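Much of our argument rests on the idea that a fold can be written as discrete symbols. The amino acid sequence and the backbone structure tokens for this protein are reproduced below:

___
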Amino acid sequence: MSAANSAGQAPTSKKKVEQGDLVEAVMQPCPSPMCDIGVNLVDSSYDKDREAVIDRARRANVASMIVTGTCLRTSLAAKELCEATTSYPLYFTAGVHPHTAKTCNSTTIPKLRQLASSPKCVAIGECGLDFNRNFSPQDVQMQWFEEQVKLAVELRKPLFMHCRDAGSSFADVLRRYTPLPAPAVIHCFTGTKEELSSFLDLGLCIGITGWICDDRPERGGAELASLLSSIPHDKLMLETDAPYLVPRTIKPNKARPSRNEPALLSHVLQAAAQAQGEDSSALAARTNRVVKSVFGINF
């Protein structure tokens, strides 16, 4: 027994560092009010401190968020959260991610149509194709991606889309409905130069996340950053995809939160500005104009 214990003193234990404390230490305010266009704010990782996450975003000059719906359950949860939150401008997307396309049935599109009737719904999605993980069979992914494109066309709403290792099939579906009646966004773009060219030819906007902050060679962050200058000024938007893709430009590793938050959007902004040799204030201003134009929101 140690001397401390023999004297009746309790052993000391290291206090657990909370994720919010780590974010507070490294968050930097955006140079102008910005909107994070892709936040999985109804993810269970935020259940204990969702209001604090929103407060940190506000203090980091993230003036608005679009909450991503990835299935009927999360789309409904996003709707309820956005409609209940009156102190901060939240909007949402309603859709089914390709990973969960296998859960779709004859009731899916009518339910999405109903969710999309909310004034807080600014896009159909997250929908698309993911031939990398193939959590749903590819033919099922194709079927329900096309059904959601049809719904967006019917409602004249923007599309919020996902594409991974499926560029050719993805473009084939969209070409059947172009020109689309409303803008469409490739969320969290991580593709090739050829895919980028194909998507821009279709008139799509491009969402860039903290993937460009990843300096690990096998992740392709540097290659992605090199493509940013090829994206027209009226097609680029920025997002965190929180709680995923924590910016790895936050150093040292022990200072980096393991859960991403919208309050860290400025790190994505800085990496994107550096990749293009552009002032971050100028980049924030022009991406804001794109967000407002595509989604019809003000912040």
